[in-house]
Amino acid sequence: MAYVIGVDVGGTFTDAVLDDDAGTILAAKAPSTPPDYSRGVIDVLEALAEQLGCPVEEMLANTHHIAHGTTSSLNALVMGNVPPVGFLTTKGHRDSIYIMNVEGRYLGGSPEQLQNVMGQSKSHGLVPKKHALEVTERLDRDGNVVVALDEESARRAIRTLLADGITAIAVSLLWSFRNPSHEQRIRDLVHEIDPTVFVSLSSEVSPRIREFARNATTIMSTQIGPGLRDYLGSLESKLRERKLAGPLLVMQSNGGAVAAAEAPKNAISTVGSVLTGGVVGAVSLGKQLGHRNIIATDVGGTTFLAGLVVDGEPVRASSTIINHHPINVPTLKVHAIGSGGGAIAWIDAGGNLQIGPRSAQAVPGPACYGQGGTEPTNADANLVLGILPERGLLGGRKPLDKDLARDAIRTRIAEPLGLSVEDAAAAIYAVQNAQTGDLLRKTVVEAGHDPRDFVLYAFGGAGPAHCAAYAREVGVREVIVPLGQVASAFSAYGLASSNIVLAAELSDPAAMPLDPARAERNFAQLEARVLEQLNRQGLTFTGVEIEREIDMRYTMQLAEVATAVPAGSLDAAGIHAASELFEQRYAELYGKDSGFREAGIQAITYRVRATGILPFSPTLPELKSADSADAAPALVGTRKVCLDGTIGYVDTDVYDYSKLLAGHVLQGPAIVEVPTTTVVVPHDTSGTVDRLGNLTIVAQ
Hints:
Blueprint: E1 3-9, E2 13-20, E3 25-31, H1 37-52, H2 56-61, E4 63-69, H3 72-79, E5 86-90, H4 96-99, H5 111-115, E6 132-135, E7 138-139, E8 145-147, H6 151-163, E9 168-172, H7 181-193, E10 198-201, H8 202-205, H9 211-241, E11 248-251, E12 257-259, H10 273-289, E13 294-299, E14 304-310, E15 313-314, E16 316-317, E17 320-322, E18 325-327, E19 331-332, E20 334-337, E21 343-347, E22 353-359, H11 378-384, H12 402-417, H13 421-444, E23 455-459, H14 463-474, E24 478-481, H15 490-497, E25 500-511, H16 516-535, E26 543-554, E27 561-565, H17 572-590, E28 601-613, E29 635-642, E30 649-656, E31 665-667, E32 670-674, E33 677-681, E34 685-689, E35 695-699
Parallel strand pairs: 1-4, 4-11, 5-6, 5-9, 9-10, 13-23, 23-24, 30-32
Antiparallel strand pairs: 1-2, 2-3, 7-8, 11-12, 13-14, 14-15, 14-20, 16-19, 17-18, 21-22, 24-35, 25-28, 26-27, 26-28, 29-30, 31-34, 32-33, 34-35
Helix pairs in contact: 3-9, 6-7, 10-15, 11-12, 11-13, 12-13, 13-14
């Protein structure tokens, strides 16, 4: 028997899904254990082994691989919890990371923040100036050496950084993506002085044009690389001690995994790795259900995440923004806000109720956990409203205290606003649904899509309690709650479903139409690089898929659009077809007639993505069919539940998911209790259990 395991480490819970080559799927959940998240990983693996009825050593000895998604990289950057690093760049160009291309005041800001000019600042520099040093060297735009590297000046700069306690150095020289020799020599010099220093080169991490983004990407990758290396090394050692046979893989932002030993070399690629797991899972489940347009939503303990699948493929982006800095990392496009089940409710200076972005996380957790938390959260409101069972979560293994939840809501929300505890809880529930609906509008409508053309998938521990409400906010009529064995561990299911995906890119700006031979040379170089990287993963693939694309733009415009280029030999007709596709995609993104063909088109960056197909991935098993649509055999009682503050508390049927069969139909209002989550079927909706055990909620 061979197993594949996906492990999703969140801020509050760590989830795992196990699949074997016979089609069995198991899921488990355990509290996350900051600051040492590896303990939570071991705990959840032991919970899986307990379900299998064998020691964890026996399970891991038969494991083909573990795919691990971690929030540690993203959390470290967002919270600024990173060690000091050094930065070496070309003489005269140090201040580019402080000037920030004049973008630093507004990149990643909301419309409200953009309008508040007086409130904008650039007080988020990546490194202090004393740790940003220059070396004498210069290449021209074609990569020719204009000024040779002054190795003695480089040595002085390196020694200055090391004397100040720096143990990791980012190197980003002007035009190095056209000729990496000077950067590579500086790395050699660093290791001649101290072989233990962690070094990142922009020519390897981000070989793209545009100095500020390349510098920021390289620095951030250097900030998290050593910590990721130490965490993964420690985790892998613990797994090997427990007889893990296969490799430990790490999820990347691009929707695929990479070997743990390779991940720290380009650590920035793991930022947001957990965020993409649910989208990958949605693609996999969509193939089984025949859905090609999907809104994937994940409400965990800390965040609300939303991503899109369009025509069967996840929507991708070639860059992202972190702390006002542009980051060159291919990623699945996932929007996030701090609005999870543990998001804290609070009142702002204007007397308005706000939810998040602060979270109670695993420690101390929501007030109802009884672990010392005193601030009210979404989970506390849901307990007071009757949505969550008083006996607790995880089938009662995680007890909840309703009195503590009421006290937190009373003192922090109800009394300041002059509301009853019940009305305050209903207000928290309503605000949560409204702001998650707002993010969905940004995700779908602002990307040029009609939500009515999509089905919404809802997962995460808190997602099923809110999904019907936030779907209604944007006009989506059909909601799928993946249940069965994956339930709230759906992102871990996505991790277990992932393949190895590696990307390489290279900027080589030129006007269209391109010389086909030039494009072929660039793609051949990139394909050789990703295929060599695939060979280092230590895995056997059933196949390899290669995708090629070029970032194009209209001349003198800034908006670049990733444009697919077909495989095979390129000729003038293929180059022309790519230009036509670029104009089509540009119009879809920015509106008909928004382009300006007369200005000309430029090819900027070439990109190749290689997918190594792993031998097997999870397929959800089919559920036994019911004799009739009547779900009465699964009804376990009723309780007072408030799903709408204007209606108040009403007697609501409560169903035990384990007793539901394919074809059972529930009429709202209803609650479905699953060991790892709770599903709300609101008024004026119905829920139907499908052949895979998922619950389909449809507005009537």
